[in-house]
Amino acid sequence: MRMEQTLILMKPDTIQKRLIGIVLSRFESLGLDIVAAKAVVTNRALWEQHYANLKGTPFVDSVIDFMMGNFNNLPDHRMYAFVLRGENAISKVRTVLGATNPEKAEPWTLRGQFGCIKNDVMQNAVHASGNAEDAAREIALWFKPEEILP
Ligand code: UDP
Ligand code: MG
Questions:
Q1: Nearest ligand to the CA atom of 11
Q2: Tens of pLDDT along 102-120?
C-alpha cells in the first residue's frame, strides 16, 4: 500500500447530466480524501498540456474539443477538478471508474453506469490519472501547491 494522489475531472457529459455529486460520492466512499477542489474555465492550451500523454494519437483533437464543452452548450468552457488522496488512490479510482469504453465497462463501475451506452468512448463520465507519473504532472498543471491540503 502506498499513499497516492490522483487528479479527477468531471467530463462534460457528467456536468450536463448533473451527476457530479453522485460521482464524487463514489470516490469519497472508497475512503479517499478530497484534498483539492475547484471550478475552472479552461482553454485549449491547458487541455493540450493535460493530454500531453496522448499527443500524436488520432483522437487527441476530438477529445480536447469534447473536454472544452462543445458538447453541452454551456456558456463557458467550465471544468470541475479534484485531487483525491489515499492508499493506492490511483488504482482504486481507476477500478471504480471502469474501462475507457463505457460499453465495455463493468456495470457496477462509474463508466458502466453513467457513461454513454452507445459505444461513444468520448462520453465516459470522468477523467482520472492513469499512473503516478501522469498524476504528478496533471495535479501540478491544474493546482498550485497552496491549493492542495497538506
Ligand atoms: N478516447 C477516444 N478514442 C480512443 C481512446 C480514447 O476518444 O480510441 C478518449 C476517451 O474519452 C478517453 C480519453 O480519450 O477517456 C483519454 O484516453 P485514455 O486512453 O487516456 O483513456 P482513459 O485514461 O480516460 O481511460
Ligand atoms: Mg488516460
A1: 1
A2: 999 999 999 999 998 777 8
